[in-house]
Amino acid sequence: MHWINWVILVTYIVYVVWDGLRRTKGTVNIEGYFLANRNLPWWAVGLSVMATQLSAVTLIGTTGQGATDGLRFVQFYFGLPLAMVILGVTLVPFLHGAKVYTAYEYLERRFDAKTRSLTSFLFLMSRGMSAGTIIAAPAVVFAAVFGWNLTWSVALIGVPTVLYTVLGGVQAVTWADVKQMVVIVSALTAIVIVLLLRMPVPLDDALRVAGATGRLDVFDFSFDLTKTYTFWSGVLGGTFLMLSYFGTDQSQVQRYLTARSVDEARSSLLMSAYWKIPLQALVLLVGVLVFLFYLFQAPPLLYNPAHEQQVREAQPAEFAALEQRYRAAGVEREQSARNVVSARAASDAAAESRALDAFRSAEAVVTDVRTEALAKAETVTGQASRDVNYIIPRFVLDHLPIGLAGIFLAAVLAAAMSSIAAELNSLSTATVVDFYQRWFVPVASDAHYLKVSKIATAVWGLFACFVATYAATLGSLIEVVNRFGSFFYGSILGVFLLAMLPRARALGAFIGLISGMVAVAAVSFGAPSISFLWHNVIGAVTVVVVGLLLSSGPAPAQPARS
After folding, report:
1. Torsion (CA) 115, 116, 118, 121 in degrees, nearest 10
2. Rounded-to-10 torsion of CA 389, 393, 394, 398
3. Do residues 196 and 285 touch, judged by C-beta distance below 8 A?
4. Under 8 Å between Cβ of 147 and 161
5. Class of residue 64 by CB neighbours under 10 A (exposed 0-12, middle 13-18, buried 19+)
6. CB of 323 within 8 A of CB of 425?
7. Considering the domain 3-294+396-439+464-549, what is its CATH architecture?
8. Residue 16 vs residues 8, 48, 540: alpha-carbon distances, Å
9. What is the Cα–Cα distance from 329 to 327, expressed in whole angstroms?
10. CA nearest 135: which of 357, 486, 463, 382?
11. Torsion of CA 210, 211, 214, 220, to 10 degrees
12. I need a surface site. Which of 67, 127, 353, 386 has the fewest CB within 10 A?
């Protein structure tokens, strides 16, 4: 990579850490450390909420998803606006008005301590694993592209993020998120402009070709529980997932608890409701445009350069034969795509139809050859060979102008750092407030709790780095992070739904939560096999049904406030 790109990347990392350290001044109590004294403006909170979601997993995994699968993934977010409206009139005003540090404190007030602790523990597990996945996204790419050891790649991302999160708390995290959103959106916009300028055919014609592969199909109205991305899984399963994520996940609840008022907290969430789907569509469109770019520019057989080199060295003759077949199929695919464009220009529908059929056939051959190459890479390296997470980084380093590649890599780091910082801060909050303070040291000075909070942040950072090395082998990271979340989110949401039902009792909530996790575990491991988005519905419904069945008798006295 050119030295100018390195200068941009290093300068950005130094600036973010310095700014985080600068904002540590005045953070002398845990309310300032965890909630910024509940005094952040709504627009900063809103941008922080969006930055937390728009992680490096999104920039790398979702763009790769767009290149290989098209726009269907955007259906995943169809439940987001509805979820934000529901939360705006239910949990947001209550949790903000209750002056709690964590969402799980409310569960002890409503039910009992064991329900609070179990729910908080499930959050810690889900969010700790998700933080590791977010680190894995850029780490595996940097390791492969630059030939670095994976441990050093994880350290490059994890160490500066942990540093400014440990020292600065949520205030440093939020204001870093604001700047990082600017960098991320700027980088995405610049890539789109470059791709449009370098497209050798008119954009509408190119999109017609992409449509022939199904990559522009947004809606799938089939009601198939085994299919991940459909309209119904997005609206129903997605709504449950978003309700749980934004309403009961401490990493998001903590964002709007920092707002000055309930109205500003609502406004910060509505910002995501308005802008998340268009922004996600932009990310997926970048992937589709990269696919189109590689129709007219010879793509690599394997996008992971480390695997490509290992296979080439281990089986040079076999790999060379695959490359020859791949190039031949690529030439035929390109010619068919150009024939589609020519037929459209001549308004020859019959010729266009024949050209599209030829294009689909050539595309199938390209896919088959790549499948053979990926299988060979898995055999040679002994590692999972899914390379969807390398498509965009490979394009950036091979084809973007000097300087712009550095900005994109800075955006990847920005996305990773903003999400990881938010996760670590929320993990520390739940650890200290829901466990350390609740069960071990209920009375101590703010200075003591502040010190423990910083230690907890560092420990969770170390845990996330360990998880990152495992998550890197699990395929499309945007799916991995949502699979981790969906395993827990539905059951956690179910407990909060029970809390809003007057009939629900503590025993029902606790046993219901356990039952929800058992039900999700059953369908996760094939009894029966159901797509992960539906796990959120199954978990929530199971918890509510079991909880209500086990709740009977008069309402118990409210427990003492923790």
Report:
1. 170
2. 170
3. no
4. no
5. buried
6. no
7. Up-down Bundle (1.20)
8. 12, 15, 39
9. 5
10. 463
11. 140
12. 353
What lies within 8 Å, CB to CB, of 369 at 6+ separation is 301, 322, 325, 326, 329
Contact 142, 154 (CB under 8 A): no
Residue type, 311: V
Distance CA 144, CA 507 (A): 50
**Residues constituting the chain:** 562
Q: Which residue has the tokens 């084809």?
A: 399
Structural contact between residues 503 and 548, judged by C-beta atoms closer than 8 angstroms: yes
Contact by Cβ (8 Å): 516, 536? no
The answer to whether the beta carbons of residues 511 and 547 sit under 8 Å apart is yes
* CA–CA dist 251, 49 (Å, integer): 9
Residue 376: closest CA among 312, 327, 328: 312
User: What are 40's strand-pairing partners?
Assistant: 259
**Tokens representing residue 258 in the block:** 């920092």
- Segments making up each domain of the chain, as ranges: 3-294+396-439+464-549, 305-386
Neighbours of 310 (CB within 10 A): 18
Task: Retrieve residue 25's tokens.
Answer: 């001044």
Per-residue pLDDT of the chain (562 residues; tens, 9 = 90+): 778 888 888 888 788 777 766 766 656 667 776 776 677 787 777 777 777 667 666 777 788 888 888 888 888 888 888 888 888 888 888 788 778 888 899 899 899 999 999 999 999 998 888 888 778 777 876 776 677 777 788 888 888 878 777 776 666 677 777 777 788 788 888 888 989 998 888 888 888 888 888 888 888 888 877 777 888 888 888 888 888 888 888 888 887 788 888 888 888 888 877 788 888 888 889 999 999 999 988 889 998 888 888 999 999 999 999 999 999 999 999 999 999 889 988 888 899 899 889 999 999 999 999 999 999 998 898 876 677 778 888 888 888 888 888 888 887 777 777 778 778 888 998 999 999 999 999 999 888 988 898 899 899 988 988 888 776 656 556 667 777 778 898 899 999 999 888 899 999 999 999 999 999 999 887 666 787 778 888 999 999 999 999 987 555 544 444 4
Which residue(s) pair with 259 in the sheet?
Answer: 40
Helix (H) or strand (E) holding 395: helix 391-399
> If you search the block for the tokens 């950005």, which residue do you land on?
12
Distance of CA 9 to CAs 157, 431, 544, Å? 12, 33, 48
Question: Does an H or E element contain 291, and which?
Answer: helix 262-296
Name which of 291, 139, 150 is nearest 210 in CA terms: 291
Distance CA 405, CA 398 (A): 9
